[in-house]
């Protein structure tokens, strides 16, 4: 009796079935695709703490960094790099179609013409008191930005109770704003983002569409993950902090912290937040 095969990346068995039954690919093609995806997953997960290495957390920047390493460290030719990219795209299309991820991270990558720098706006967390003065901004945007600015990760925010956030918010006016835009009628400590029945959302899929329209007001992309990464690079830009401070503020392991430090040096450019007049 043969032993069970060991997956080298998440959902590999289901991906192989998808390639065979839905894509009608030859076994050799499937094996080649799985080899490419496995190489990517080794690169990605090997740089992060186990709790951070999740298909839901993979960003365009992570894939861009991997492709860049193939080209510049392993000296692969552009057409070879593009084959890796096509296999990774097929994998993430599969993940998206079957609901294993919410956001497809490859929309902006176009073969070997990919931009090696990702831009993040930093320092916005110091302007929440100004942002709450804007008449048309959505309360969900303020709540999400406040939670991210307190160090909570996107998954944590989905199950975050409002009082857990309020004790960490330093600005009195921001704390009051959150209280005034929270329904305490049926619960004295509701979820920060609660459904009509009082339960929390399963993912940020329902939150991102509510905050996305404020992009033009805030002047930067508004998704939970992009906000989280901009906060990470904002903290890492503060050279006055000690290593222990970075870990405490970002709730990261040293392994993951070093991964983001490397990204910031090689693949990230930042600009200071400026509120539009």
Structure description:
The protein is mainly α and 277 residues long. 51% of the residues lie in helices and 4% in strands. Strands 1-2 form a two-stranded parallel ribbon. The N and C termini lie far apart (70 Å).
Describe the secondary structure blueprint for this structure.
Elements: H1 12-22, H2 27-46, H3 60-72, H4 78-97, E1 118-122, H5 128-131, H6 139-149, H7 154-158, H8 162-166, H9 172-180, H10 208-211, H11 215-218, H12 224-236, H13 243-250, H14 254-266, E2 268-272
Parallel strand pairs: 1-2
Helix pairs in contact: 1-2, 2-4, 3-4, 6-12
Strand content: under 5%
Give the class from helix and strand content and strand pairing: mainly alpha
Report how far apart the termini are: 70 Å
- Average pLDDT score: 88
Biggest β-sheet description: 2 strands, parallel
> Which stretches are low in confidence, meaning pLDDT under 50 for 5 or more residues running?
none
Order of helix and strand elements from N to C terminus: HHHHEHHHHHHHHHHE
Total E-strand runs: 2
Large-scale geometry:
globular
In summary, what is this structure?
The chain is mainly alpha-helical and 277 residues long. Helices cover 51% and strands 4% of the residues. The protein has helices at residues 12-22, 27-46, 60-72, 78-97, 128-131, 139-149, 154-158, 162-166, 172-180, 208-211, 215-218, 224-236, 243-250, 254-266; strands at residues 118-122, 268-272.
